[in-house]
Amino acid sequence: MHWTATRSRAKVKFFQYGALFIAVTYAYYVFMERKYSKSEVDVESVNDLILKDEQSYTEKIHSVSRMYSINRKKLVSSSKTEKTLKAPPTEKKPKDSPRKASQMCSHSWKTDWDEIKRRGKPLINLDPNRFIYPVLTNGPNNQLIGLRDTLYLAIRLNRTIILPHFYKHKTDTSTLNGSDTFIPTSQRIDVAALAALLPVLPFKSISDSCADGFDDIYFTSYKLMHSSMTHVAEELGVLIHGKQNGERINMYPKNADPSFSAQSQVTSDKKSLYKLYGSPGTCALYVKPYRTVGVKESPGALKKFWKKFFDNGTLNVKQHVNIDSIEDKELYSLIVHSTPKPKHITEIINDFISSYGLNDVEYISVHWRYDPVDWQVRCRKEERLIKRNKEFLIEMCNKVKHTEPRDIAKAILQFIRSLQGKKFFKKIEAVYIAAPLNMEHFIEEIEVEFEEALEEEGIDNNIHILTHLDLRDHLLKYSSCEGLKENYEDIFSQLEMDVCSRATVFLRSPSSSWSKVIKEVRVVKNRNERFDGNIFELAWRVAEKRINS
């Protein structure tokens, strides 16, 4: 009986202390939730910055900047345990920029067409009364290649190009909130640099130069010849399917075979291109160019013709050029060099590199492309991949699925250790990790895992990680620059490309045009690309070993 009573009292005490423990735990949870939840919400809402008017937009991004400083310390949930995201002891904080806010937008974010006219004739002169306009397709980097293909065709056919609309990436969240899907040419290339090579016209000139509609359509595949052009007509504001006088529009190539595909069948010589697309009409529409002129850039040609045609990065327009004597690869390489990124992109990254002291150290850049929102969509279409003989992508999808942040972190660290001691490297002091913006937490986990790996291996923790969070924070000072608000995500992608292209070593993602463009830039700029690597394969080796252990 006594024992029963004692047990009952003990039971009551147990529940009392248990209730107290639960209450204290809950109170702590509420405190932590309140402390970090606002940070989480603001971080996730950064993609909505472009939705507000200019004043609220500026206030919003400065608020987000403050929240990021908190968010960098928040608890990050990983596949193993909760870890605290902590900065390395030697982390380099950004230096205060000596430039005033009014100087942040010193390079115009719009094309100065009056200045272009004052320059005089370009290196290559083309017929000012015959025009070509491309309808670009796919992602931003493919669109740039499509523009370059059009420039090549314009030169070979002696037509002046009307600069086209570019389009935001399909994952760009600004388009979901009413922002325009178009991107001005001045946000993708330095128009002034292109105008030094050959004559170009702004998009708005299409209403004057091609007021009666397009005379000819140049198709890049037989399938496209039977597709609707209505949406294109609406976009351009001119007639596509016929001229105002009722004449039938001309379609090229004539008598095309159902198997016709410019990507595999077109050759780059002038005679062959004339045979396919030679037409007398004033205005020609070039539909969805992408690797459709039979020639592309090559590392050797890019290096060779950079030295031949450019002085300190500027095209030498005073030299005499015989177009017909220029080899195809030489001409295409010249076009690549003449379509660089806009000056304001270079300006922002110069400031970022200087602020974080990256111009004084050796650093590695890493591009992890495989986000679930865009790249991994193809993984859910296995039957289609098999039909298109792309089984290698199925294998890639499987590897991506089983690769974790800890594998990537360990692979980066192993790669850094492999570079140590080589005579070309002093010491890697920083790593910049680029990825689609929707992979924010994935990248944060890589950062946490990397720091833990340093500690586990007893390595002095003096390698600091930079990610898109740091670049976003830096970009806040440019919030008043014209064009940033409307095209934030597109500009941000270009900025990350520039950071990666300047690194001592670049670890690329295969099956990514984003990585390919960086590789081209590094070749031209002599960035010791021979030491560059493949982060996908490096990470999979680590993942495979972990899985099999």
Task: Categorize the overall geometry.
Answer: globular
Number of individual domains: 3
Provide mean pLDDT, rounded.
77
CATH architecture identity of the largest domain: 3-Layer(aba) Sandwich
Helix content: 40-55%
Radius of gyration: 28 Å
Describe this structure in words.
Helices cover 45% and strands 10% of the residues. The chain has 549 residues and is an alpha/beta fold. The strands form five sheets. It has a six-stranded parallel sheet, with helices on one face. Strands 15-14-13-16-17 form a five-stranded parallel sheet, sandwiched between helices. Strand 1 and strand 2 (82-84) form a beta hairpin. Helix 4 (140-157) crosses helix 11 and helix 15 (405-419) packs across helix 16. The chain is globular and about 75 Å long.
Question: Strands, helices and their partners?
Answer:
Elements: H1 2-44, H2 54-71, E1 75-77, E2 82-84, H3 113-119, E3 131-135, H4 140-157, E4 160-162, E5 166-167, E6 182-183, H5 191-197, E7 200-201, H6 206-209, E8 216-218, H7 230-236, E9 250-252, H8 262-265, H9 270-277, E10 283-287, H10 299-309, E11 310-311, E12 314-315, H11 328-337, H12 343-355, E13 362-367, H13 382-387, H14 391-402, H15 405-419, E14 428-434, H16 440-456, E15 464-466, H17 468-475, H18 488-501, E16 505-508, H19 513-524, E17 533-534, H20 535-548
Parallel strand pairs: 3-4, 3-10, 4-7, 8-9, 8-10, 13-14, 13-16, 14-15, 16-17
Antiparallel strand pairs: 1-2, 5-6, 11-12
